[in-house]
Amino acid sequence: MTASPQPTPESNILGNFASVVGLLGAALFFTGWIYRWSYFYCFQLNVITLDLPVESFFLVPLQVFLGDGWTILRSAIALLLTALAIYLSLWLVNSINKTVAAKINGTITRWLSSTYARRFPWLYRILNSWQQFNVNRYNSIKLLRSLVDEIIIVGWVLLVLFWSAYHQGIADARRDAGENSSLPAVALIAKQDNISLGRKLDDPTLRLDPKGFKAIGDAGLFADLSKRDYTDINNPKEPRVWRLLLERGNWIYLFPALTKEQQKDPKARPPVIAIQQSQSGDQLLIVSPEASKQSK
């Protein structure tokens, strides 16, 4: 029988590299998913229902860790603290393990040297065998210890990634919901029969007639939104700016940006409207990096 070939240094390097890439990919996807989940949660949307491309979750962590100078500094501090926490946790577990083992062995030694041990020979043999047992000779015990260490390391890494992505997602959502939003301003033009909100272009003081529509659920939400869903003609200094949150699956997600007064409330969230895209060409969506000067 021929002996199995030993792995070469090159194969070991490639294997380690593949393992690192796999772990890095899993960490990036986890971070991107948590960021997207917390971001859209602020807009009362479930990220699972949005059918976002999988590859986008691997790019989102760039925003979490490299968004700006302060974000990079915070990420570096989090990395150092994570390494310190992992080291202290491993040291603590190892110290507790040694302390417990020493106490157990000390107790067994005292009991074996006592006169009571001779009265129970079968128990004496068991405890004596326990004391002479060397766990370091068994690979399964070593594997178990290694598994515990890896669980501690992975647990700390996931915890830091979760909180970093979660808080960054909420912070970016709060920013995009207000005046300093990075989302584009939009204007949606549609036929009167295809939209139940809005004002007539030839007479901006008139709202569209909601006759012919039915409602399910809290109709007061529609009533509240219909009163404030347009540029406020009575207060042109604070126009109502609508922004595009997402275009996905033939649906357009729009929301009215929060005003300065609304942004003072940390719990304020803008209502989101989902409008199905028209397939007949009678709908126009204008996307702009900022609102028109006419509405300012």
Please outline the major beta sheet.
Answer: 3 strands, antiparallel
Low-confidence stretches: none
What portion of residues is helical? Answer: 40-55%
Question: How does the helix and strand content classify structurally?
Answer: mainly alpha
How many domains, as an integer?
2
Write down the overall geometry.
elongated
Instruction: Provide the spatial order of strands within the biggest beta sheet.
Output: 2-3-4
Strand content: 5-15%
How would you spell out the order of helices and strands? Answer: HHHHHHEHEEHEE
Q: For the CA atoms, what is the radius of gyration?
A: 31 Å
Descriptive report:
Helix content is 50%, strand content 10%. The radius of gyration is 31 Å and the shape is elongated. By secondary structure, it is mostly helical. Strand 2 and strand 3 form a beta hairpin. The model has no long low-confidence stretch (mean pLDDT 77). The termini are far apart.
Topology readout:
Blueprint: H1 9-41, H2 56-59, H3 61-66, H4 69-112, H5 121-132, H6 139-176, E1 185-190, H7 219-226, E2 242-248, E3 251-256, H8 260-263, E4 273-276, E5 283-288
Helix pairs in contact: 1-6, 4-5, 4-6
